[in-house]
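Retry 2 of 3 after timeout on previous attempt. Resubmitting structure tokens to design endpoint.
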């Protein structure tokens, strides 16, 4: 199915999946959410991380850890305590934001397990001369995996098998890790049940993000484990909800531009009614991500590069 056809299917599906902010898990407590899958919450709540980063333990006996979390000694200790008496054979990292990857060094030092990820941090596109942007979560530029994974690569452990699924958009190096036999997918920050993901250029790309949603929707996995918040049942249906949501946001941007040329702060005020003031900057970069996509498609025009301080008009 083409991207446009999937959009049409999504827009015609009226069974929206609501966000779920019911996540009572306490930091440092290990919880078996499904047989063979445990999770531990880090105590790093914020408007961007919800109640904190969720690390996952896959398997029993000889196990893998997915997303060791931020530079947090207490969380590393909780993870290691959760696997006491077991052997950590693999460490997987979905992406290199500072709330997901820095604790990898602690877990590797304690376990000697090799680290698997797409690669070091990189932007989705070159930075324009006029840009000055530091994403809220920040990039972990010290991270380097032992094994670089590409889309479709499979890593097997004791009783589990994970397939790398390229999901760029939130970051250029974002991977999901699917367990096809169980129909599970560890989707990192690409899909979250409590909120939409931040897509902030040049770190992120809305073009890539939407293509990655298509990739997930075409797969068979239907239970998602996210980097923040609760598990997401009916994963493909939830992805269709996200596609609808992003297309509605795009429509709001075009509706505002139909009234005349304007800048991003004006669009944010018109579109994000009642937004938490702490999220205003992130909302601006989300609008920029949509505008980059619209400019690339020839729908919207701007003078020079599409940047946060630019003005935009209908092409």
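Retry 2 succeeded. Sequence:
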């Amino acid at each position: 199915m083409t991207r446009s056809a999937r959009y049409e299917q999504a827009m015609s599906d009226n069974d929206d999946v609501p966000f779920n902010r019911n996540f009572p898990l306490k930091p440092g407590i290990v919880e078996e959410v499904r047989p063979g899958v445990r999770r531990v919450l880090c105590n790093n709540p914020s408007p961007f991380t919800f109640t904190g980063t969720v690390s996952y333990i896959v398997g029993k006996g000889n196990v893998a850890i997915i997303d060791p979390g931020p530079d947090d000694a207490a969380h590393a200790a909780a993870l290691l305590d959760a696997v006491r008496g077991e052997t950590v054979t693999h460490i997987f990292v979905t992406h290199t934001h500072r709330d997901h990857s820095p604790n990898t060094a602690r877990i590797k030092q304690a376990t000697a397990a090799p680290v698997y990820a797409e690669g070091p941090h990189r932007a989705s596109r070159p930075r324009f001369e006029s840009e000055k942007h530091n994403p809220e979560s920040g990039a972990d530029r010290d991270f380097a995996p032992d094994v670089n994974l590409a889309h479709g690569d499979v890593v097997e452990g004791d009783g589990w098998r994970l397939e790398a699924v390229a999901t760029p958009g939130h970051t250029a190096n974002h991977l999901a890790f699917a367990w096809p036999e169980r129909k599970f997918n560890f989707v990192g920050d690409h899909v979250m049940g409590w909120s939409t993901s931040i897509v902030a250029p040049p770190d992120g790309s809305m073009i890539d993000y939407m293509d990655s949603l298509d990739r997930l929707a075409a797969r068979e996995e239907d239970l998602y484990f996210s980097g923040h918040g609760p598990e997401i049942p009916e994963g493909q249906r939830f992805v269709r909800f996200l596609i609808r949501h992003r297309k509605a946001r795009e429509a709001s941007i075009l509706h505002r531009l139909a009234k005349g040329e304007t800048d991003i702060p004006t669009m944010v005020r018109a579109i994000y009614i009642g937004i938490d003031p702490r999220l205003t900057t992130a909302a601006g970069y989300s609008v920029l991500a949509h505008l980059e996509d619209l400019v690339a498609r020839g729908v919207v025009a701007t003078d020079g590069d599409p940047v946060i301080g630019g003005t935009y008009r209908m092409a």
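Attempt log closed. The helical segments are 3-12, 73-82, 104-111, 206-217, 235-257, 264-271, 280-296.
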